[in-house]
Amino acid sequence: MAKITMREAISQALMEEMDRDPAVFIMGEEVGVWGGTYAVTKGFYDKYGADRIKDTPIAENAIIGAAIGAAMVGQRPIAELMTINFAFSAMDYMVNQAPKLRYMFGGQFTIPLVIRAVGGGGRQLGATHSQTPDAIFAHFPGLKVVSPGTPEDAKGLLKSAIRSNDPILFIEHATMYQVRGDVPDGEYLIPIGKSKVQREGKDLTIVTYCKGLELSMKAAEDLSKEGIEAEIVDLRTLRPLDMEPVLESFMKTNRAIVVEEGWKSYGVGSEIVSRMYEEAFDYIDAPILRVAQKEVPLPYNRTLEQAALPQVADIITAAKEVLK
User: Fold this and answer.
1) Given the residues 17, 29, 129, 305, the one annotated as active site
2) Which of 38, 182, 190, 287 is the most core-located residue (most Cβ within 10 A)?
3) Domain with 261 in it
């Protein structure tokens, strides 16, 4: 095991897959000479050259459209969007073309496309650059949506995504590139569509993913000091959604909260909670609560931004509420 950052884990996955398969290439704004907005592809241009590391114009619609075309003729493109907020400029290609083409043409071709996008708030980038619209993309069948919360999962899931023959949106959180964690040495893959229990507990279940995992782990440590042991289930993938570990944990603890950075209304938490009520109603000992972002465009001011985003204290408060 090596303890590396999320950025290093993602870079390793990209480089290993490019070394393994010459059909893999990267395209996006500033991914080449500049090395990526978040330095994930730093040094890639010097190693692989302009044929495989392609700087593109500032045109997300063109980036995703060209990537779909390349995937249809046998290449394995990795299209980087500087931020997931810019995905709205490419919505038709992302939700109306890439997820449906294989189905509509009877499987005559595949779409082995990975779209890497940076999401989330916390970096004072303003209301239009700090959103967490994960639930929007997870709504569409045919598009897989992956959002890891640890360096180990980031590397293993990204390698699996690159080898997949389906279009996959791979969401990375803007504030987590410096998060460190143990990453196995050598070749390893993590299956897409499998949730994971990241912390064992007996008193309540916390269901979360991505940035929410980091916050939930900190909250669980604080709760443990008060004799409350929370079990944390990390979704890792939003579509396909693996509810089995969630339900197994809930049937053990009988109390749960769901933590997400997106807005509460129509969000990921809404889907999780509805499925828990539908599939494990007899095990509910208290209302399932949701911790999410305040229902406002995210402010630029740092103090206001942090007030709007979910915090460790919010998770602790919700956990104690369901334990009353």
Assistant:
1) 129
2) 190
3) 196-322
